Amino acid sequence: EAVISHIRWSPSGERIVFTVGTFAPNGGVIQDLYLWDVNDQPAMKLTTTGANFGAEWRGSQPRWRG
């Protein structure tokens, strides 16, 4: 089972960066970053350390506020 979080759209609206968290055997959580180009599939895994908590696009403005 995986949980997707920290979703951020690129300024152009054509890419999304997000975190995928999975449960580790020791009870912790492993989180890695993925990049998805909405015109291409599948998403590309950007990290492999399991210790990532999200990303921001440089110079981007939020598309929405919670």
What report would you give on this structure?
This protein is 0% helix and 42% strand. The chain is built from no helices and 4 strands. Strands 1-2-3-4 form a 4-stranded antiparallel β-sheet, with no helix packed on it. A hairpin with a 5-residue loop joins β1 and β2. The model has no long low-confidence stretch (mean pLDDT 83).
Chart the SSEs and their pairings.
Elements: E1 2-9, E2 15-23, E3 29-37, E4 44-45
Antiparallel strand pairs: 1-2, 2-3, 3-4
Briefly summarize what is shown:
The protein has 66 residues and is mostly beta strands.
Query: Helical proportion?
Result: under 10%
| Percent in strands | 35-45%
Instruction: List low-confidence stretches.
Output: none
Distance between the termini: 25 Å
Biggest pleated sheet: 4 strands, antiparallel
Total of helices: 0
Shape: elongated
Notable characteristics:
66 residues; 0% helix
